[in-house]
Each structure stands twice: as structure tokens, then as C-alpha cells.
Amino acid sequence: MRVLSVEDDQRIAADLKTALEPVGYRVETCTNGLDAWFLGDTEDYDLIILDLGLPQMDGLSVLKKWRANGREMPVLVLTARGAWTERVEGIDAGADDYLPKPFRMEELVARTRALIRRSAGRASACQSVGDLTLDTNRMSALIGGVPLSMTALEFRLLSYLMLHRDRIVPPTELLEHLYGDDESREANALEAVIARLRRKLGSGVICTRRGFGYFLKGDSA
Description:
It is a single chain. α2 (33-42) packs parallel to α3 and α6 packs across α8. The chain has helices at 10-20, 33-42, 59-68, 84-92, 105-119, 152-163, 171-178, 187-201; strands at 2-6, 26-30, 47-51, 75-79, 97-100, 126-129, 132-135, 140-143, 146-147, 206-209, 213-216. It is α/β, with parallel strands linked by helices. The strands form 3 sheets. Strands 2-1-3-4-5 form a 5-stranded parallel β-sheet, sandwiched between helices. Strands 6-7-8-9 form a 4-stranded antiparallel β-sheet, with helices on one face. The chain has a two-stranded antiparallel sheet with strand order 10-11. The protein has 2 domains: 2-120, Response regulator (Rossmann fold, 3-Layer(aba) Sandwich), CATH 3.40.50; 151-216, Winged helix-like DNA-binding domain superfamily/Winged helix DNA-binding domain (Arc Repressor Mutant, subunit A, Orthogonal Bundle), CATH 1.10.10.10. The protein is elongated. The two termini are 24 Å apart. It is built from 8 helices and 11 strands. One of its GO terms (cellular component) is protein-DNA complex. Residues 124-218 form the OmpR/PhoB-type domain. Pfam families: Response_reg (PF00072), Trans_reg_C (PF00486). This is Response regulator transcription factor.
């Protein structure tokens, strides 16, 4: 899952990255409102974590511009401002959730998971297709009741297909949401990960619609 963290406090930004990447998220960082507005307006993210007190353009203005341009990605607002009127203003501007500082990283991770699930129309942390079951809270998977051993990248790929199991996911979309800027986004890298997963899952769980993309067995066939 691809997350944009917009935070000008370097310590908090580093803590967000440290908390989210081990549990399956690719975190990109941004430190000012102008860059945040551009990235959110031109790139596809599964979630944006947005601080309101930003240099160059405040977070509330950034959020309003995204929504005015039809950008619908879930946004979790972080702020040191505690007044309920400001929280209401943020939600009215298009925020999906609101977390006042200081906060526990465990709560932020839980809210991140919930927002991404709900944006895909999935309420539960446990999702199933056929014999495959994923638990996004525990980062675990079962196939026919047997636990699977997976790398973080393999789990991210399988989770993305599960969240979007009502449609065929193009390879370009998978590449964008799986890999950070410092990693290869070549199609053959994606094919290698899918090949490894197919060996672990068995044939027919991850299916290919030639010329369109990938889907899980039992959906979008």
C-alpha cells in the first residue's frame, strides 16, 4: 500500500515511516504544502497522512484543493490544534479522520488500516476469497487453513489484490502501489513476485487476464 506522509517535523516524519513500513506500507514523505498539493493531485496514494501546520501552504488549504479537483483518496489529518471547531473544519474540508497530537503510533497504524480498508469498501480486517484468507492487522495469510510464509513485498501485493478483488488490477497500478522511488518498477520485477506467490499459493489463486492485469480466483473472472 502506498502512503504519503506530509509532515514538516522530521522526527515525527521518521517515526511515521518507522511505524508503517514494517506493517506493509510504502511511505513517501513530503515536508511542505506546495509539494504535498502537487503530489496528491498527480499521484495515486492509498492514504495521505496530512499535518495542518505546514510551510508554504497550510494543510487545510491543500486538502481543499485536492477535493476541489476531485481527488478522493482517504486523508488522515494530524494537528496540534485541539479546538473542536478546527476538527470540524478539517472534516468539512474533506478529511476522513482526525488525530490530534500527541498521539500513539499504534493508534495511527490502526486508523491507517481502517481507512484504507473502508476506502476499498472492506470493513473487516479479515478478508477471504476462496480458500485464501488475509488478516491485515496481523499481517498473516492462510490458504486452505494452512499459514503462509511471505515476504513483506509479497504480503503487500496479495493485500492489494484482496482489497481490490472486485476488479482486475493493471500491472502499472500494482507497480505504483508496491514499490518506493528507490526500487525498480520494471514489469519483470512484478512478475517475479507474482511467480513466487503462485508457488506458495498453488495454481489458480492469482489469475491473469491477458492484456488487462491480475485478479484473485473467484472474482473478476
